[in-house]
Amino acid sequence: MTSIFSDSYTSITTNEWNPGWGQTTTLATIDIDGNATLKYDLLNFTGIVTDYGNPTDISSKTHVHFDYWTNSIDTLSLKLVSAGQEDMEAVPSITIGQWVGVDIPLSDYAITDKTGLIQLIFDAQGGNVTGGTVYIDNIYFYKELAAAPTIGAPVPTTDAAGVISIFSDSYTPLQTNEWNPGWGQTTILTTVNIDGNATLKYDLLNFTGIVTDYGNPTNISAKTHVHFDYWVSDIKITHLKLKLVSAGEEDMEAVPSLTFGQWVGVDIPLSDYAISDKSGLIQLIFDSTGGTVFIDNLYFY
Which class is 2-142 in CATH? Predict the structure, then answer.
């Protein structure tokens, strides 16, 4: 991910916004529902300069993305300038009065060298209306990955004698009462077979619960870590957290940073959880941002 402008990602350094190239465009950054958004008024064209002295390499990316909202233009294009070459691609059709996400394959741009990006230029000329107002957010380059893993999660090597397993083909799991119980989440859960390995697939994951047994809580006080493997490629996933609920206490810990397109093992020390009594575990809750997450090998050790 190479972000130019978005509250959801850490953006690269940019040198100029709407530089004085003779355009009518005026630019303001405004707050919409707590989200910083670019507002372009009188938009005929406008530039974003990354860094002339230190161009941005987007050669490993496959797409450029941005979201737009307008009620007053009928054409919008994005030009890229890299390593002395430039090309412009248009949004196929403009939708009025709602946010629209645009994903343009970088292969559509007739630029052979994408290692030296220095400018992005939005252009609203050429239609029946020019000089209108456009709101823009979430400008970034990304690499399109497979939608699902083709190989299963790595086989765990932790000694079974020291494991309390919630979900894994490698260990005997404890009895669990509920999976993805109806707590108002968007999450959809299916168990899928990946390379002969049962795997949890969470779609539209905002949050989801696993209830062990309310009547017979699980004692994890002798364990030191909780482990799970995850696989994500969905760019809507910006965080992944695991909450534990035990003996009337609860706390949530986050994966420090996400890796996309491969299985990643996570080991969280139970000492990181601000739960003084770990003898009464009744719930585990994954929390994320509405995309697809694959989970396997969930256990305490």
Answer: mainly beta
